[in-house]
Amino acid sequence: WKLINIKKCCVDILGGGTPSKSHPEFFTGSVPWVTPKDMKENVITDSKDHITYEAISNSSAKLIPSNSVLMVIRSGILKHTLPVAINKNEVTINQDMKAFVPTSEISPIFLENYFIAISPDILSKVRSVTADNINFKSFQKRKIILPPISLQNEFANFVQQVDKSKVAVQKSLEETQTLFASLMQKYFS
Q1: Full-prediction pTM beyond 0.85?
Q2: Helical residues (DSSP H) of 11-148, grouped into ranges
Q3: Are 113 and 159 in contact (CB under 8 A)?
Q4: What is the dihedral of CA 111, 116, 118, 123, to 10 degrees?
Q5: How confident is the model over 99-113, as pLDDT tens digits?
């Protein structure tokens, strides 16, 4: 498979921003403003905080197209974990994150999982200056494999099936635990 720079497999790589806190009205909107605290799932559909379109116009925050790959690049969590997710809706991000807008040559699910696969190497290069961070200039020059899109889509379908199975197993476990607790309560009462 051919190797390509991360920068070349993306239409754009966008940074985030924080609207001025001196304008509290900027934080009353409907546009999700994703920060590292929201990066707990593989898919982002919403965020804890929201901003207005006016806030976007008056700050370095940018609208990130759906199906981009979001990554935390500055945070204490980088000591042990690389948070990566795909946004299913348009969002904005803060300055501690980057958004990779993939070209048609690369599946967002493939790119997300590639980042996860190489996360031990990425994390081994995290710098601790004022906050733990990834040296982004060198990161975006990294080369990644680029299998044919048909194989990437096959991989993406497999990942989605595994995720569905994990959800079903988790639900079954929760139901079993509830049943067990109910039986124990009945048995000991």
Answers
A1: no
A2: 53-57, 108-117, 119-124, 136-139
A3: yes
A4: 130
A5: 999 999 999 999 999
